[in-house]
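Dear U.,

Please find below the material for section 3 of the report. The protein was modelled together with zinc ion; I have listed the sequence and SMILES used, followed by the predicted complex structure.
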Amino acid sequence: MESKLVVFEKAGQPLQFATCEIPALTEGQVLVRNEYATLCRSDISTYMGKRIEKSPTILGHEIVGRIVAFGPGEAPCDAYGRPLEVGSRITWAIYAANPDSEMSRRGIPQKSPDLFKYGHEQLRADNTLHGGLAEYTILRRYTPILPLPEEVPLPETAIINCAVSTVAGSLRLAGEMKGRKVALWGIGMLGTIACAMCREAGASEVVALDINEERLETARRFGATTCLRSDQADVEKLKADITIDYSGFIGAMEDSVRALAIGGTAVWVGGVCPQDKVKLDSEQIIRRLSTIKGLHNYNAEDFKVAVDFITTYYKKYPFAELIYDGFTLEHAEDAFRYAIERNPYRVGIHFQSK
Ligand SMILES: [Zn+2]
């Protein structure tokens, strides 16, 4: 059996369309026929050359698909330990990591030494079908997997395993949300999802901050109670219990700390690329008993929360509006161009069924 795939060599070079023989599965592996993928911001950054990944590679890690086959031995189980079934629609975590590694045991499998990351691996003859821009993906052993209800539309499920799971991780680090005032910087895909997630977790106030007024308007429909232009807001007055930055802008990260009430926690999620240093006032951090945490990717618990969140609230919030559903795999190049030129929250790629 063969699979089509889209190969990324380097920025500025057109994507290559290729075909490969699907290798024989080994124990613990799951063959998935991809049904839908969304282009994450990091895919676009790699495509544009803003970040350098191992290449050639198959981009795309926000993916959903249907189980086609298992490797030899017992059928693998899902993230709750339930046996998986051929034919099920599933989503899976962005990573595979040995659950017994020291890092996994500490709750940060994304930093395990044996980490395998979908959409970020080098394409080799002995290591293929690990990204969303291919007809099939081979899920490696130790990948957290969860089945999806058929009634949830594909675009909404595709965003689970990067955007929604990362937001779930940021809320976990932020701590108790009930009755707390939250301020969020960077109301793109993650910030918009975070508005809804914070509200559903019981935040009393959700303040959305961005320079883009259209995005702030959308934030309101996702549960933001106050929307402020981040370049005009008097952040010292915010006095938020929890602040989260998804923008990665230095000024926003600095503001997220200045905006904290006494005993507050700031979580930084954006800005996963080399840039200038952030300037902080140590005296204020000490006197206000502030906590600052960083988050890169997420763990299996966050992934489970993300699946629950989308399957529970996909009708309550207009997630579908955030995804431009206009391309097939054959038009992957156009999908990237559209994402760069028009900058929607997400561009979706659907796979034609045979
Ligand atoms: Zn991503």
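For the text of the report, you could mention the following: The chain has a mean pLDDT of 96.

Regards,
Y.
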